[in-house]
Amino acid sequence: MKMMKLVYPMTLVLAVTLAATGCRNHKPVGVTPIPNGQGGQVGELPPGGTMGGNQPGGGQQANMQEFENMTEDRAALANYTIHFAFDSSAIRHSEDANLQSVASALSSDPSTKLLIEGNCDERGTEEYNRALGERRALAARQALAKLGVDPARIRTLSYGKDKPTDPGHDESAWSQNRRDDFVLLHPKTGA
Amino acid sequence: MKNCLNICLPVLFAVFAVALARGQNDQNEIQITRPVSSLGNTRPIPVSIEGFDSEVTAILKFDLYVQGFTFVSPETAQYQISGSSTGSVVGRVVDRFGKKTLFSRSYNGATLRRQAHALTDDIVFAITGKKGIAQTQIAFKVQASNGNGEIYIADFDGHNYQAVTHDGTIVSAPAWAPGRSALYYNSYKRGNPDIFYHNLTTGERDDIAHYTGSNISPAVSPDGSRVAMVMSESGSPNVWVANANGSHPRKLTSTSEDSSPCWSPDGQWICFATKIHERRVLAKVPAGGGEVQVIRTPGTPNPTEPDWSPDGKWIAFTMQAGEFDICVMPADGSAPPVILVRGEDPSWSPNSRTLIYARRTGGHYVLSLLDVYTKQVKDIHQILGSDSEPAWAR
Predict the structure, then answer these.
(1) pLDDT per residue over B270-301, tens digit each?
(2) B137-392 in CATH: which number?
(3) What global pTM score does this model have?
(4) CA nearest B292 in A: which residue?
(5) Residues near B111 by Cβ (< 8 Å), separated by ≥ 6?
(6) How many CB atoms lie within 10 A of CB B299?
């Protein structure tokens, strides 16, 4: 009887199929729509972000201009560099004291602004790390905003893994490199 | 459990139906086999090469090896390539089995190197019917140990390289503007990671994205009309699309950890790396806006840096799992990814089978080529410094 011969292997195939796919993933492979709660719709730049995109050298957002004509002071906040866990942009509680010091420095001189430079260790691909460094800088800006600093005074950038403080290839070096550096910005004085 | 039954019953029925249908036709038991790699394992085409000088022979071998050929004696070759290179290159290809000459041609042109590349393109076309890649170009970055670097272009094999930038700053992620002699890239020349458009013919360049935060990872649409990039101006790095000159930037995603956008060859989708439900995944979003869809990569966690093949069939990407591995999967998700070679940041050649990628060695990067069907790999001619982030002109 052909059917009897087939039942056993069929059951096996079924079992294997179920084991391989799992009961949870019953959507077709490759397509899982994500409800985009914050709006998957296309958004233009917010007002105030006007750019002369059609002009040569255009595309300069208003905020960027507010950070020009300032001098960088790398020494002032050099001791308050904060560090991150591997592949993470979460601010750890161990960094709270340093963030508080940065916030205090900014509140003591309202003419200053801040540049936060996000960095990574070498254990990521280049563009992934460039984005991760940016997330680290943004996380610090958010933390400073919670401490009362106006985020409009802060700009961020990422160096990815291009500017390690320690060129070594071990965790001791890597942990130093996963960091945000804080650069105090003073308005340029004089005519 | 309810979900389980929802699948189990239809599957059981389907399987049973198939079993009954097959049972009518043959007596054999159904075999359970492991899924075959969607790429298969193509054997290289054996050819022989005779008569050329050593430099031309080396060029012929390099070009053909990375397009899936291997080199044997004339007696065992499927195709016999012969010719000479005194003065100029002359080449002839004989199909040994078919006992016919496919072509016999002489070349002239600026250099023997160029002529040899033209010959290999003719060889590839005569044997496979497909266009060869020996006369294509790549862009990449060359980085010094202090982190600064410059954007370079070169022949696909690394020869005839020239610096595009001379800024002594951090640069990254060159991307070709299709059909034009122009590049987009990220440069910190103005004290911020900005995206520039650089006309290679005139040397003129504009920054097209200079917003606060980081403007990184440009990717140009196949028709050259739009550029996708990652910008964090809104407070988190997301995928934005703008016109080719940077005007009318529109935010496409609100997912939280986006990087490395690339376009589908039909210009309809942007594929990128992101994090959804705490897992790092690849995803795609309609280029005109819409829902983000996950692209599953079973067996290859932490995918990043995707690139979509020009024929639309494949997505190559880097898997980060301790080490970095180049993986390739069918773009329609019909089979799981295959892990091919240690390396990062793949870019497809116009032939949709050769990849260029960067591999780490001794603390720096070198560029290497991989033929995904035969798995043959070869480093390209290296430039000083650390060479990475390759982009193949299409």
Answers:
(1) 999 999 999 999 999 999 999 999 999 999 99
(2) 2.120.10.30
(3) 0.84
(4) A34
(5) none
(6) 12
